[in-house]
Automatic annotation (TrEMBL):
The lineage of its organism: Bacteria, Pseudomonadati, Pseudomonadota, Gammaproteobacteria, Pseudomonadales. Residues 20-128 form the Acyl-CoA dehydrogenase/oxidase N-terminal domain. The keyword RNA-binding does not apply. This is Acyl-CoA dehydrogenase. It comes from the Bacteria. Its cofactor is FAD. PROSITE patterns: ACYL_COA_DH_1. Pfam families: Acyl-CoA_dh_M (PF02770), Acyl-CoA_dh_N (PF02771). GO terms for molecular function: acyl-CoA dehydrogenase activity; flavin adenine dinucleotide binding. Residues 132-226 form the Acyl-CoA oxidase/dehydrogenase middle domain. InterPro entries: Acyl-CoA_DH_CS (IPR006089), Acyl-CoA_Oxase/DH_mid-dom (IPR006091), Acyl-CoA_Oxase/DH_mid-dom_sf (IPR046373), AcylCo_DH-like_C (IPR036250), AcylCoA_DH/ox_N (IPR013786), AcylCoA_DH/ox_N_sf (IPR037069), AcylCoA_DH/oxidase_NM_dom_sf (IPR009100), Mycobact_Acyl-CoA_DH (IPR052161). Keywords: FAD, Flavoprotein, Oxidoreductase.
Length: 386
């Protein structure tokens, strides 16, 4: 074990990154002071405000790393990092555009057609075009290669039939990237024969129905595809190579600040309220929380730096998600030392509402985007223990 090294380089943050952070922070302070949004816990899954997404687009804060010709600003992954970090820290309603900005846009850039890049990326960057991820199915979650959604070759395109489950935000989205089987798996080669498609969600044969989670929110969906026709140029990348594409998206999906800041808004509210009156036990809890956030942030920034240098740090990203999601769950329990009475949601107290929502939403943190058991398997393989 002594030879194991993880690579989390400390990035150089130039002045333009600090300037961008303070610009975003000033904007958010103004929005909050003018009651233009209500901060929510787990905002990147639970906070939907289409106007707010559009405002971020107008500010030039979406798709910032993409080429200018496709609506981007050619800034670095670290510029994007500070924007997302500021938004998460205040619980801003960012869910509508989150997947498109984080994942689907970069996928189109790497694997989409020129038409997709010209037509779709500028709309994502403007905060007007949203994406859902069509990976999981009723019988395919951790074992994603067992997807049963089928794409059958027909004249001029493909016909897609199957059911995708837990598709976050699909009810607000114009598109879903759908992983489908395009040929039968050969013995021992289950990861071959899978293909990703860009599917407009207003296509004939698409039906989306909401699923309510235990916090009462209907943020994810069951999405049915009944012989949905998509033209040949809807294939993302190459036919049969969907698995390779998906695994290269994972570092983007797993390492960002959303994997440890989902409940940060509660930390802030609890600490602001308790700041002047901490006993020794509470002070120790605060110290522990701050130390963990700082370590996670350094790791997550390290992954952003690796992505910026063109690497695909899957193992480091899996570690950030494993440690980060456990932190954002754990912190809610720890904060009960400051606020022991819960289940008062609806009494008008912001902290009680945030705490209650956090408590009800936190079980999902270690499931979505790959469960923590599966992530540990990736880390174990990455360091040669499996
Ligand atoms: C809030 C939320 C949002 C989501 N959004 C989306 C979305 O937008 N699009 C999408 O496609 N999916 C989405 N998902 C689905 C998510 O990716 C899956 O829930 C996840 O991959 C786990 O799959 P599963 O639910 O089928 O559980 P299973 O894979 O059945 O796992 C059940 C349990 O078995 C354990 N397990 C499974 N395999 C192993 C193994 N090899 N080793 C050790 N333990 C194992 C798991 O860790 C877990 O504890 C979302 C999920 C949640 C909770």
């Amino acid at each position: 074990m002594s030879g194991i090294r993880f690579n989390f380089p400390a990035p150089e943050l130039d002045q333009s990154i600090y300037d961008l952070r303070s610009e975003v922070r000033t904007f958010l302070r103004e929005e909050i002071c003018n009651d233009r949004f209500t901060p929510v816990t787990d905002c990147w899954c639970a906070g939907v405000d289409l106007d707010f997404s559009r405002k971020l687009g107008q500010k030039g804060w979406l798709g910032v790393t993409w080429p200018k010709q496709y609506g981007g600003r050619e800034l670095s992954a670290l510029h994007r990092y500070v924007i997302t970090e500021e938004l998460l820290a205040v619980g801003a309603p960012v869910h509508a555009h989150w997947i498109a900005d984080r994942q689907s846009g970069p996928l189109i850039l790497s694997s989409g057609t020129e038409d997709m890049k010209r037509n779709i990326l500028p709309r994502i960057a403007a905060g007007e075009c949203f994406f859902a991820l069509g990976l999981s199915e009723p019988e395919a979650g951790s074992d994603l290669a067992s997807v049963k959604t089928r794409a059958r070759k027909v004249d001029g395109g493909w016909e897609i039939t199957g059911t995708k489950l837990w598709s976050s935000g699909a009810q607000h989205c114009q598109y879903m990237t759908v992983l489908a089987r395009t040929s039968d798996p050969l013995e021992g080669k289950r990861h071959e024969g899978l293909t990703q498609f860009l599917v407009p969600l207003d296509s004939q044969g698409v039906a989306i129905s909401g699923i309510r989670d235990m916090s009462g929110l209907m943020h994810f969906n069951e999405s049915h595809f009944d012989s949905v026709f998509v033209p040949d140029d809807s294939v993302l990348g190459k036919v049969g190579e969907g698995w390779k594409q998906i695994t290269s998206e994972l570092a983007l999906e797993r390492s960002g600040p959303e994997r440890f800041l989902s409940t940060f808004i509660v930390v802030e509210h609890a600490l602001v309220r308790a700041a002047s009156d901490l006993d020794a036990r509470q002070a120790a809890i605060v110290g522990g929380i701050i130390a963990r956030v700082r370590a996670l942030r350094a790791m997550s920034l390290g992954v952003a730096a690796l992505l910026e240098s063109g690497k695909s740090p899957d193992v480091e990203a899996a570690l950030v998600k494993d440690l980060g999601t456990r932190f954002e769950q754990d912190v809610v329990e720890r904060l009960r030392a400051f606020r022991p009475i819960l289940w008062k949601s609806g009494n008008g107290d912001v902290l009680d509402d945030l705490m209650t929502d956090s408590l009800l939403r936190q079980p999902s943190f270690t499931l979505r985007g790959g469960t923590n058991e599966v992530l540990k398997g990736i880390v174990a393989r990455g360091i040669g223990l499996r």
